[in-house]
Every structure is written in C-alpha cells, then in structure tokens.
Amino acid sequence: MKYKFRYYLTIILIVNGSILNAQVAKLDAKSSYQDDTRNERIAKTYPIIDQLYKEFALKNHFPGYAFGIVVDGQLVYKGSGGYANLEEKIPATSASMFRIASMSKSFTALAILKLRDEGKLQLDDAVEKYIPALKGQGLTKDAPVITIRHLMTHSAGFPEDNPWGDRQLADTEDELNALIKKQLSLSNTAGLEYEYSNLGFTMLGYIIHKVSGMTYDTYITKNILVPLQMQGTTYEYTTVPKNLFANGYRYINDQWRKEQPLKNGIYGAMGGMITSIDMFSKYVAMHEGAWPARDAAETFPIKRSSIREMHQPARFIGIKTTKKYASEKRLAATNSYTYGLNWLMDEYNRKSIAHSGGLPGFGSNWRFFPDYGVGVILFANVTYAPTSKINLIVLDTLIQLAQLKPRPIKVSNILIERQKQLANIITNWNTGTPIFAENFFEDYPIEELKNSANAIFTKVGNIIKMNTMIPENQLRGYCIIDCAKGKIKLSFTLTPENPALIQEYHLAIVD
User: Hey, which bits of 202-307 come out as E strands?
Assistant: First the structure.
C-alpha cells in the first residue's frame, strides 16, 4: 500500500544539525548489508520522522520528549521538543535525564545472564535458594518451585502489579523480605501463564545482590554501564544535575501537574533507571551489534550469544491485530516475552525487540529490528506516555521509505561448492560425483530426475548463467538459473555430515 503524506506539510530539513551524523555507520552498513546507499536513503527519512514525533507529542500532551535513531550501532539522528522542566522552562534535549521505568528490566535480566555465564547461578535455580522466605509458596500444592527463569519471563504466578509496583521504588530489601515472609498472593501456578510482574524483577535485583555481593545498581553500573560508557546513567534522581533532570508530569483537566519523584530502593531493579538518549543509544547499539552471529572477538561486557538469547521468545503473550502502521495498513503480530524484553513478529515476517516503560510522570519505549539494524528510542515526561505505538509507526515508515531489506545471510563455502557441482549434473544426471547423501537416490530415483530435467530444459533451453546462491541458512538455499528461453530455480538442502552432502533437491521453472 502506498504511503499518504498529506499530514506531512511541514518538513524540517535539518534538526539540531544531526543529519550530518548519518554518515558515521556507512562502512559497517556496506559490509553487512551489501548496500552502498543504505544510509543516505535512511537520512532522507529524518525530516518526516521528526514531524511524526512532533505531531504525536502535541496530540498526547507531552510536556517534553527526546528521541534517537540508532543504525548499525550508531546514534545517527536525534531530536527533541518541549520542556524537561516546565517551571523553569528548561528545554528537553538528548542529554536530558528521563526515568525510563520498566525499560530498566532488561539491564536486570542482562546482569542475571552475566552471572549465569560466570557460573555463579543457573536460570533454573529455585528462587528460594536465594530468598528462603519464598519456600513452599505456590498457588496450588502441586505447583512447581518458582525459578529465576520464571521471574525473567513473567511466569512466576505473581499478579500484574503496575499501579502498585510503581509506588514501591524506594522500598528497602528488608521491606521486600518482610512482604514475602507474610506469604504472597498469587494469581497463577508458576510456569503456566504470562502475567507482567514488577515484583518478580525486584526479586531478581535482590538475587543479584545475594550472588555478587553488590547491590543490583552497583553491579549493573560496574559491569554494564561503565563498560558501555554510560557512567552518567543512575537509579537515584538526587544525583542528577538539576538542569538535566526531566521532571515528571501528569496531564489532568487540561493542565500538567508535577509528580514527586521517588528515591531509589530495591524496586528500582524493575523500573528505576534514569538516563538520556545520548547514553541509552549506546545500550541499543550493543544489542544491534550482537547481530549477526560471527567469529569476531567479543567486545561487549556480556557475550554476544547471551545478548541474542535475550532476543528469543521465551513466554508467549498473544496475537495482536489492532495496531496500525502510518499507512493505515493493519498490523497482525505474534507477541512474546523474552528475558526483560518483548519480542514481536509482524505479518511481514519482521522480528523486532522492544520494551516500554511507564511510571507516574514518565513514559518511554525502545524498539529495534535485528535483521535490519535499525532502532528507535523515545522518552517523554508525562504519566504513561503511549510511546510504543509511535515507535512502531516510525520504524515502519523508516523501513518503507528507505526501502530497507533485511541483512543478507552470508553464503557458506559448502553451498557454493555443491551449487557448482550440481550445475555440471542437472542436465544429464551423471551420478558419478559423490556429493549426494545415502537417502538421495531412494527419494529421487535417477530415471525420474532425468525425465524431469529433460522436460524442463526442453522448455527453457540451454543454461546461460548460474546466478549467485541465495542462502536460507548455512546448509540450505537456492539460486536462479538463466536459460535461453526462461529461468529455473534450483534449491537444495545439505546433511549434517562433514562434508555436508545433498539430501533434498528441487528444480522448477520460474513463472
């Protein structure tokens, strides 16, 4: 469906001079996407994206907002509007420090994975090993013990607790333990259902302290924030310079009411982080940089494989059919929770990773498409600002207008080798070449192969050119073959043997 831009009448050509930054990631994009003009096409979308955010912020009564676009691990564009501090008329900028609420959860999950990688805990450890007061607690007598994995995927059986949890940020570890000792009220049996739980992630923060000997915020700062050069990110609002801190507001009766920020406590593990677009973009860059899987040396504070593990669906949430993109085309998507993140696949087979945050005074969201190397961040300082919807619209707009394609899979040497060998066989099926698995001629009798090939080449003529192999993975792919009177598609799959042999084969005329 074509995009309609009737509402983009005001276009700003350059905002904050940030278009100049679009060239930073060009070399990486060329090598990864085999697309020399990719970043230039992306840069052309910035004025439209800026207008989308501006109009959305106005419509939804954002006192102030800031956003960033991260491409191939670089903050290539950023913008802002309104005020971080209405009382003193301090403008919101990419350096303004917003409380990002539940976007904090992925840092807590990342810390747990780092401790797991170091052999200090296991995801299937019983939580009672670290919080003895939880022992024996379950909705039913046959309920399994609650594990760390249950906490990380919102499937421990705790009730959804956003309004209550939002007001607990300043609680201490002693208060958390006292709550658990009084016996918790559960809504589900552990391991059976997804239900969003701030309490569960608060327990993860406590486990980080028990295992590492450092409070969760100290551990995350030392092991994640500092290595990523996000030192200014904090959990305690009183440490943020006043001219940088974004006050939170609630919009009531056509006016903004300032919200009193809460001090940091154990519940900050689920929603207390305070950061800026400039700093958080480095975290998004790390997540983008975990893709694709490769042999290069590790450069992040946690293994790339563990970061990619965070991007896999772990607990099914549901099917969404009500969202829409900017073009008004409907979005049907399947939605799951991972470890501290949300996984979504839309009807166009595009996977995206995200998380939102909402607290009294704040709303935020970040989302990125691993296969496209693009991500967006939006912070706003009004209660529960609906930031997720606009970020989906922005990303779809960017992908569509820049005509982006997913990162191609690098073709393996064995696929190329088998393609060349097949090219010498498929017209006459001389079986002397030992490239076929033991099942092949049982599944594809030689006479059938010869008759099929003869019928195809009679219609399309002799082979003119064998085009590049298009891999679906390292052991399966296809290529298009140009012939004198048409085109044919050759596809095949290899075995797990070493060397890998051909186990499945198809040859068909391209309509």
Answer: 249-252, 255-258, 274-275
pTM, rounded to two decimals: 0.90
pLDDT of residue 300: 97
Residue 223: DSSP 8-state: I
- Which residue's entry shows tokens 């792919």? 477
Name the nearest CA neighbour of 251 among 130, 381, 382, 364.
382
Where residue 277 falls among pLDDT bands split at 50, 70, 90? very high
As beta bridge partners, residue 502 has 436, 494
CB atoms inside a 10 Å sphere around CB 179: 15
Mean pLDDT, range 444-471, rounded to an integer: 95
Residue 446 belongs to domain with CATH number:
3.10.450
* Token pair belonging to 185: 């009220």
Q: Residue 473 falls within a domain, yes or no?
A: yes
State the DSSP code for 9: -
Domain ranges, residue 490:
413-509
* The pLDDT value given to residue 22: 31
Model confidence over 337-396: pLDDT tens digits?
999 999 999 888 999 999 999 999 999 999 999 999 999 999 999 999 999 999 999 999
- Tell me if residue 473 falls in helix, strand or coil: strand
User: Which residue in the block uniquely carries the two structure tokens 């009183």?
Assistant: 238
Are the CB atoms for 462 and 483 separated by under 8 Å? yes
Q: How many structural domains comprise the chain?
A: 1
